Amino acid sequence: GYSVIEFYRDFMLMIQNALMYNSVDSEVYTMALSLKRFGKKEFAQLLPLCDPAEAPLVLRSHSGSARLTRS
After folding, report:
1. pTM of this prediction exceeds 0.70
2. In DSSP terms, which residues pair with 60 in a beta bridge?
3. What's the whole-number average pLDDT of the chain?
4. How many CB atoms sit inside 10 A of residue 4's CB?
5. Contact (CB, 8 A) for 67 and 59
6. Beta partners for 66?
7. pLDDT average, residue stretch 12-36
């Protein structure tokens, strides 16, 4: 199946690509920032339910549990 972690990684890749390949003053860039904020908020509720071993390193706290960090 397609895990929450895999979906999160793909979601963030899409956001990063939108930010990288569009100018700061474009509508796409603005929407990508909005989606990034929304996604972090929503995934923050789901990731604690996931297996911490599957979480990307950026999401792991020192205790090993999955969580989102500010960037």
Report:
1. no
2. 66
3. 80
4. 16
5. yes
6. 60
7. 97
Per the structure block, which two tokens stand in for 40? 């972090």
Dihedral angle of Cα 6, 8, 13, 14, to the nearest 10 degrees: 110
> Rounded CA gap, 62 and 9, in Å?
20
For 44-71, write each residue's pLDDT tens digit: 888 777 777 766 554 544 444 445 554 4
pLDDT reported for residue 44: 86
Residues 28, 18: contact at Cβ < 8 Å? Answer: yes
Distance CA 58, CA 61 (A): 8
Joined together, the tokens standing for residue 39 give: 């996604």
Measured in residues, the chain has a length of 71
How many Å apart are CA 68 and CA 44, to the nearest integer?
6
Q: What is the pLDDT of residue 33?
A: 97
Please, what is the Cα angle at 20 between 1 and 24, to 5 degrees?
A: 130
